[in-house]
Request: fold
Amino acid sequence: MLLQIPDGNLAVFMQRLLSAYARYFNRTHRQAGHLFQMGMVPVMTDDKVALSSAGN
Reply:
């Protein structure tokens, strides 16, 4: 997933995104508990080549 967050509030955005997806997944699959065991690894880049290969 490649997103541009103009306000720079990435932590709040990621918390809301992952919480919403975890609720959806748990409700859909009738499960409970933690969905994501490993944290996300953010990589900042201005390189257009790196951005074009990020989606691959």
The mean pLDDT is 75. The chain has two helices and no strands. The two ends are 10 Å apart (CA to CA).
